[in-house]
Design brief:
By secondary structure, the chain is of the alpha/beta class. The chain has three domains: 2-87, Four Helix Bundle (Hemerythrin (Met), subunit A); 95-297, Rossmann fold (3-Layer(aba) Sandwich), CATH 3.40.50; 303-367, no CATH class. It contains 15 helices and eight strands. It has helices at residues 2-19, 25-41, 46-59, 71-87, 117-130, 147-158, 171-184, 202-215, 232-242, 260-269, 290-297, 303-313, 319-327, 333-344, 348-367, and strands at 105-110, 135-139, 162-163, 189-193, 219-225, 245-251, 273-277, 285-287. The radius of gyration is 22 Å and the shape is globular. Bound molecules: guanosine-5'-triphosphate. Guanosine-5'-triphosphate binds next to helix 5 and helix 6. This is signal-recognition-particle GTPase. InterPro entries: AAA+_ATPase (IPR003593), P-loop_NTPase (IPR027417), Signal_recog_part_SRP54_M_sf (IPR036891), Signal_recog_particl_SRP54_hlx (IPR013822), SRP/SRP_N (IPR036225), SRP54 (IPR022941), SRP54_GTPase_dom (IPR000897), SRP54_N_sf (IPR042101). It catalyses: GTP + H2O = GDP + phosphate + H(+).
Length: 368
C-alpha cells in the first residue's frame, strides 16, 4: 500500500529531529522540507503542502519554546494538527450525515466511471444493514450495459432489496420510481447509484442534476478512486460545482492510492470523507475519522479502528473483556487466541486484512 510509504517518510522525517544533537530552526526546516517532499510525492496539492509548512512554522517558534519542553513532541504535535487540519472539511453541521433509523433518507452516489460507485453503494447499504437499518438500492445507471446486473448481483449477495429496469432509459424516471416504491415499503435508507463517464463532461453532470431533481436526495456522496493522484482536486471540484456534494468516499485505498488524493478531495469539495474502500469485498469498508487516519499515517497505531473491527467480528458477549484488555494494554495469549478464533470464522480476504490491522494496531500501541 503506497499510503504506507507516505507514512514511513513522514515518520522518518520526524525521527530526524530526535537524532539531531540540538533542535534549532535549521533542523526544523530540514524536517519540514522532508515532510513537504513526501507529501508532494504522494500527490498532495502544492498549495496544501505550502499551507502545512507555514502552519507548522506558525505553531512552532523554536527560539521561544520554554526550556525543558520536549521540542520533538511539540513539532510532532504541530505536524499532526496540521495534517488533521488539511483533512478537516470545516463542516461543523454534520446533521446531514447522520442517518436515523425509521426516518427515510435518500442518498445519491455520484462519481466517474470505474471509481467504485456500484461497489460502494452496496458496501454502504451493507454497513447500515448491520447497524439495523433497512436499506434498499436503486440502479439509475442506464449508461453502462451490465450496471443493473452488477448491482443486482451485489444486492442479492447482501440480501438487500433492489430496483432497476432493463427497458427504461431515462435515469431520472427509474430513480424516481425506485425511490417512491421503497418509500412506500418503509425502507429507511434508499441508495441511488448513478452512471459515470470516462471523464467529467456536461452530459454526465446534466444527468446527475436531473436525477437529483427527481429524487431530492438528503445526501449526495461523491465516490473517488483514491489512486487518481494530482487530478483529484479538479475532479472533485467539478462534481461539487455541479451537485450539492455532502460527503466523499475514497475507494481503492488498498491499491496504489498515495493518500494525497484524499487530502485534495476534502479541500475541493469542503466535504468530509466518511468512508474508505479498502478492497473489492463487501466488508472492506472503513469508517473514516481524520485523527485516526493521521495517527495511522504517522505509525501511531489505530486502536479505535481496531475497536470498530472487533465490534464487527467478535461475539457480543466477549467484546467488553477484550476491549478492556486492549485499553489497559493487557493483551494476554488467551485474549489473542479468542481474537484469532473469531477472525478464522471470516472469509480469507477479511481474515488477512483484520489480522493485519490487529497486529499493526497492537504493535504500534505497544511501542508507544
Ligand atoms: N481494490 C479495490 N477495488 C475496488 C474498490 N472499490 C471498487 N473496486 C473495484 O473497482 C472496479 C469498478 O467498480 P464499480 O463499482 O463497478 O465502479 P462504478 O463507479 O460503479 O463504475 P460505473 O458503473 O461504470 O460508473 C470493480 O472491479 C470493483 O471491484 C476498492 O475499495 N478496492
Amino acid at each position: 500500500m503506497v499510503l504506507n510509504e507516505l507514512g514511513k517518510s513522514l515518520t522518518k522525517a520526524l525521527a530526524s529531529i530526535n537524532a539531531a544533537p540540538v533542535i534549532d530552526e535549521k533542523v526544523l526546516d530540514a524536517c519540514l522540507k522532508e515532510i513537504c517532499t513526501a507529501l508532494l510525492q504522494s500527490d498532495v496539492n502544492v498549495k496544501q503542502v505550502m499551507g502545512l509548512r507555514n502552519g507548522v512554522k506558525k505553531r512552532v517558534n523554536i527560539e521561544q519554546l520554554a526550556a525543558g519542553l520536549n521540542k520533538q513532541r511539540v513539532i510532532e504535535k504541530a505536524v499532526f494538527d496540521e495534517l488533521c487540519a488539511m483533512l478537516d472539511s470545516g463542516i461543523t453541521d454534520t446533521k446531514k450525515l447522520e442517518l436515523k433509523k425509521n426516518k427515510t433518507a435518500v442518498v445519491m452516489f455520484v462519481g466517474l466511471q470505474g471509481s467504485g460507485k456500484t461497489t460502494t453503494c452496496t458496501k454502504y447499504a451493507y454497513h447500515y444493514k448491520k447497524k439495523g437499518f433497512k436499506p434498499a438500492l436503486v440502479c439509475a445507471d442506464t449508461f453502462r450495459a451490465g450496471a443493473f446486473d452488477q448491482l443486482k448481483q451485489n444486492a442479492t449477495k447482501a440480501q438487500i432489496p433492489f430496483f432497476g429496469s432493463y427497458k427504461e432509459t431515462d435515469p431520472a424516471v427509474i430513480s424516481q420510481q425506485g425511490v417512491e416504491r421503497f418509500k412506500t415499503e418503509g425502507r429507511d435508507l434508499i441508495i441511488v447509484d448513478t452512471s459515470g463517464r470516462h471523464k467529467q463532461e456536461e452530459s454526465l453532470f446534466e444527468e446527475m442534476r436531473q436525477v437529483a431533481a427527481a429524487v431530492q436526495p438528503d445526501l449526495v456522496i461523491f465516490v473517488m478512486d483514491g489512486s487518481i493522484g494530482q487530478a483529484a482536486f479538479d475532479q472533485a471540484k467539478a462534481f461539487k460545482d455541479s451537485v450539492e456534494v455532502g460527503a466523499v468516499v475514497m475507494t481503492k485505498m488498498d491499491g496504489h492510492a498515495k493518500g494525497g488524493g484524499a487530502l485534495s478531495a476534502v479541500a475541493a469539495t469542503k466535504s468530509p470523507i466518511i468512508f474508505l474502500g479498502t478492497g473489492e469485498h463487501m466488508d472492506q469498508f472503513e469508517s473514516f475519522e481524520t485523527k485516526r487516519f493521521v495517527q495511522r499515517l504517522l505509525g501511531k497505531g489505530d486502536v479505535s479502528g481496531l475497536m470498530d473491527k472487533i465490534q464487527d467480528i467478535i461475539p457480543e458477549d466477549k467484546q467488553p473483556e477484550l476491549l478492556d484488555s486492549i485499553q489497559k494494554g493487557n493483551v494476554t495469549m488467551r485474549v489473542l487466541k479468542d481474537m484469532f478464533e473469531s477472525v478464522l470464522e471470516m472469509g480469507p480476504m477479511s481474515q488477512a486484512s483484520v489480522t493485519f490491522e490487529m497486529c499493526r494496531a497492537l504493535g504500534a500501541e505497544h511501542q508507544q
